[in-house]
Amino acid sequence: MFITLFLITIAFLTIIFLEVPRLILQKKWRDLAAFSTLLLPAILYSYGITLDLNLPNPTDLIAFIFEPLAKSLTSLLGTPQ
């Protein structure tokens, strides 16, 4: 497990060292904010998976959001053949 955590950390640090300086030099602050906002949950989720924490499946959230839309469209358009 220690090796896996180490490799995950190295992978994310590599991504950060490759992307962040370029974004700062080009003064792309919004891109840097979006990058950070997406990278932080990815890091936390990766560590959680490695540590065998009971984490929710992102697919369940997507299904929860879009299932009512799918049901309404099915009732509107009819059942598929």
How would you portray this structure in words?
The protein is mainly alpha-helical. It is built from 3 helices and no strands. It has helices at about 1-25, 30-50, 60-75. α1 runs antiparallel to α2. The model has no long low-confidence stretch (mean pLDDT about 90).
The helix-strand sequence is HHH
The total of helices stands at 3
Tell me the helix content: over 70%
Give the overall silhouette: flat
Task: Report the strand count.
Answer: 0
Gap between N and C termini: 49 Å
Radius of gyration: 19 Å
What attributes characterize this protein structure?
3 helices, mainly alpha, flat, 81 residues
Q: What's the SSE blueprint?
A:
Blueprint: H1 2-25, H2 29-50, H3 58-77
Compact overview of the structure:
Helix content is 81%, strand content 0%.
